């Protein structure tokens, strides 16, 4: 019960977001909320966390190995387990989503509530290392699932989009400022970043809750069950296994596994649609994996802590 209580505030805030949309306090889509998070609040959080993380130590090389080996192994596992071998559009979704966690809108808030600032710092370091590969590998594997070969135009387009990604830019900028120039942040800048960072958890969870469609859950649970299992359980188990070969600090290990146990990222729907996959199935998978995470996240908290 104590593990449920730890993450109960997460689902309470998500529930509030869902309720506010139901009574039309939040109207239409939640694009405005997500844009504020994506372009302003989350870059501030990532920059400040990485800036004060103390730099990259030797053990971070082990983290790099674990992350990118998992990006290679997990799509192969997903392909073997996918029930959609005769349906390329859904098979592509399976390979696209198997490691595409909701790192930002759910992972950071969960880690913040469970582990505090030390967890956010560890998760931010993980995101700094993994974000580029996260996008490139997931898109490339989705292409392999869809067509049986790589579509280099799609990969090239992804690379171009990454150059403009504010989350990646903030991670790189923080590394440059702290590791190369070794500057000290003026107090007023640090306090501004801190205020923005402190608003990230609540706003991200409200936006996520407002996107939930409860009516779709019952119908899609059976249909998306295998892919939900791959994302919410098998992928974090794979990372736990890989950390036995390339060990890192306890806080980093737990933060990375916990973030990887998050449901499918909400922007996967847009990616799947742009790549001519079964985007309706992707939408149902996002909704189902988020709903199932109500059970799996407390289980992972119990396992890790």
Structure, explained:
The protein is mainly alpha-helical. It has one domain: Na+/H+ antiporter like fold. The chain is 78% helix and 0% strand. It is built from 15 helices and no strands. It has helices at 2-22, 31-51, 60-81, 88-97, 103-115, 117-147, 152-163, 166-180, 187-198, 200-210, 217-223, 225-243, 250-260, 268-274, 279-304. Helix 2 (31-51) crosses helix 9 and helix 4 (88-97) packs antiparallel against helix 6 (117-147). The longest helix has 31 residues, at 117-147. It is globular and about 55 Å long.
Q: What are the key terms here?
A:
305 residues, mainly alpha, Na+/H+ antiporter like fold, single chain, 0% strand, transmembrane, membrane
Summarize the structure.
The chain has 305 residues and is mostly helical. It is built from 15 helices and no strands.
Helicity level:
over 70%
State the separation between the terminal residues, measured CA to CA. Answer: 13 Å
Global Rg: 18 Å
Total number of distinct structural domains? 1
- Give the tally of β-strands: 0
């Amino acid at each position: 019960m104590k593990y449920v209580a730890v993450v109960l505030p997460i689902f309470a805030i998500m529930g509030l977001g869902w309720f506010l949309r139901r009574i039309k306090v939040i109207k239409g889509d939640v694009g405005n909320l997500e844009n504020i998070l994506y372009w302003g609040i989350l870059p501030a959080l990532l920059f400040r966390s990485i800036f004060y993380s103390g730099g990259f130590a030797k053990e971070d090389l082990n983290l790099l190995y674990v992350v990118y080996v998992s990006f290679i192994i997990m799509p192969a596992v997903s392909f073997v387990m996918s029930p959609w071998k005769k349906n390329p559009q859904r098979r592509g979704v399976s390979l696209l989503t198997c490691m595409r966690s909701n790192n930002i809108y759910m992972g950071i808030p969960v880690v913040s509530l469970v582990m505090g600032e030390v967890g956010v710092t560890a998760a931010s370091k993980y995101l700094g290392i993994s974000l580029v590969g996260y996008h490139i590998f997931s898109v490339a594997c989705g292409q392999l699932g869809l067509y049986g070969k790589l579509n280099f135009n799609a990969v090239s387009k992804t690379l171009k989009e990454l150059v403009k990604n504010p989350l990646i830019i903030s991670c790189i900028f923080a590394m440059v400022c702290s590791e190369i120039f070794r500057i000290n942040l003026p107090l007023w800048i640090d306090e501004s970043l801190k205020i923005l960072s402190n608003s990230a958890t609540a706003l991200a969870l409200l936006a996520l809750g407002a996107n939930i469609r409860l009516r779709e859950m019952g119908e899609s649970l059976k249909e998306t069950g295998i892919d939900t299992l791959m994302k919410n359980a098998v992928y974090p188990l794979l990372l736990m296994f890989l950390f036995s070969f390339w060990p890192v600090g306890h806080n980093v290990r737990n933060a990375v596994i916990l973030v990887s146990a998050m449901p499918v990222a909400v922007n996967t729907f847009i990616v799947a649609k742009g790549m001519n996959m079964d985007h309706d199935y992707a939408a149902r998978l996002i909704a189902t994996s988020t709903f199932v995470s109500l059970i799996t996240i407390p289980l992972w908290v119990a396992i890790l802590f």
